Amino acid sequence: MVVNKSKAAFRTIAEVAEELGIATHVLRFWETKFPQIKPMKRSGGRRYYRPDDVEIVKLIRDYLYDKRYTIEGVQKLFKEKGLKNLLGEEIQKDFFDENPANIELSEESREFLISVRTQLQEMSKELSDTLTKVNI
Fold it and tell me: What is the DSSP letter of 67?
């Protein structure tokens, strides 16, 4: 199932796995070995990968599968050279290339963003109420 999303769109673990030809359990395992992979997790543990997460996973896949590094070798490489040096300017470059007015959201993405906005508004109100109670 290929979904035509904008470059800035968050992707599910299944979408990333399919795009990169990697099993979902492998992605979850790599998350335990590479703290640089930080997908956002929603209720129920559903993962949403940012564009940068996808770039990092691509880099890891290339080193492990194409260049035949071990996991420890890739970890050492990240530590010695730094992730930004390995990715160059590509990290977060494409995220800002599109005009936000031209980005089309799927219904699922729209619902997700509305949910996040609602949660943030509720948290803001709770914080405000708490600050009022303690007279700050």
Answer: S
Handedness of CA 84, 86, 89, 92 (dihedral sign): negative
The sign of the CA dihedral 4, 8, 123, 35 is: positive
Nearest by Cα to 5 from 23, 19, 17? 19
What would the pLDDT profile of 61-103 be if each residue is shown by its tens digit?
999 999 999 999 999 999 999 887 888 755 554 444 445 555 6
| CA quadruple 33, 34, 39, 43: dihedral, nearest 10 | 30
Distance between CA atoms of 93 and 25, rounded to whole angstroms?
A: 28
Please provide residue 96's backbone torsions phi and psi, each rounded to the nearest 5 degrees. -105, 5
